[in-house]
TrEMBL record:
Keyword field: DNA recombination, DNA-binding
The keyword DNA-binding belongs to this UniProt entry's keyword annotation: yes
SUPFAM superfamilies xref list: Homeodomain-like (SSF46689), Resolvase-like (SSF53041)
Ranges for domain Resolvase/invertase-type recombinase catalytic: 2-145
Top-level taxon of origin: Archaea
Organism: Ferroplasma acidarmanus Fer1
Lineage summary: Archaea, Methanobacteriati, Thermoplasmatota, Thermoplasmata, Thermoplasmatales
Record protein name field: Resolvase protein
Keyword DNA-binding belongs to the record: yes
Single Gene Ontology MF annotation: DNA strand exchange activity
Family statement drawn from the similarity comment of this UniProt entry: Belongs to the site-specific recombinase resolvase family.
Length: 200
């Protein structure tokens, strides 16, 4: 028995790590003495063209089934989920969301299909709610003249642009400044470049 372990997170940020999902999936397989292959995506669950998802579906002929931690990790679009399930079922493979105890196989199970449809619809509804909340939050922030978006790298590391400029004026190279303050060379270069006065 060899199964595909699929894990998905929305971004490559440190706060979101697919390893958290994979640890649980590996433990599940090891307890059953199943072999496995891992597939990972850093993308929204509403996207159909995720490389990891495409690869695991392409590899179905080499796998016995697909394991995910929860259904929303596999997808947040009901239409996309149902399309994937049809592909899995047509090839005589199984799909299992281990946290929810949901499993589909090549045989039709009306009750299980109903539960999958309900959970898929819930995942899509939750995505829409989150999207609406984000839009409302951005509109309110713009109205209150607040900064929108993630904190800049300088804010995160508590570094001022003036410190970088002073280091440059002291004769330090961009590489040296990058090592001293702990940020990318390209960021250092952009800060120095933006501080330079244009030649008239």
């Amino acid at each position: 028995m060899i199964v595909g372990l699929y894990a998905r997170v929305s971004t490559k940020d440190k706060e979101q790590n697919p390893e958290n999902q994979l640890i649980r999936l590996r433990e599940y397989c090891n307890a059953r003495k199943w072999n496995y292959k891992e597939y990972i995506d850093f993308a929204s669950g509403s996207k159909k063209d995720r490389p990891g998802l495409k690869q695991i579906l392409d590899d179905l002929d080499k796998l016995d089934g697909i394991l995910v931690l929860r259904l929303d990790r596999f997808g947040r679009s009901l239409q996309n989920l149902l399309e994937c399930f049809n592909i899995i079922r047509s090839q005589g493979k199984f799909f299992e969301a281990i946290d929810q105890g949901l499993k589909i196989s090549e045989k039709k199970d009306p009750m299980n299909d109903f539960m999958l449809a309900i959970l898929g619809a819930a995942a899509e509804f939750e995505r829409e709610l989150i999207s609406e909340r984000v839009k409302d939050g951005m509109a309110r922030a713009m109205k209150e003249n607040k900064k929108i978006g993630r904190p800049r790298i300088l804010d995160k590391k508590n570094i001022s642009a003036s410190k970088i400029i002073k280091l440059r004026e002291s004769g330090k190279s961009i590489r040296e400044i990058s090592q001293i303050v702990g940020i990318k060379r390209s960021t250092v270069y952009d800060i120095i470049k933006s501080s330079e006065k244009p030649i008239r």
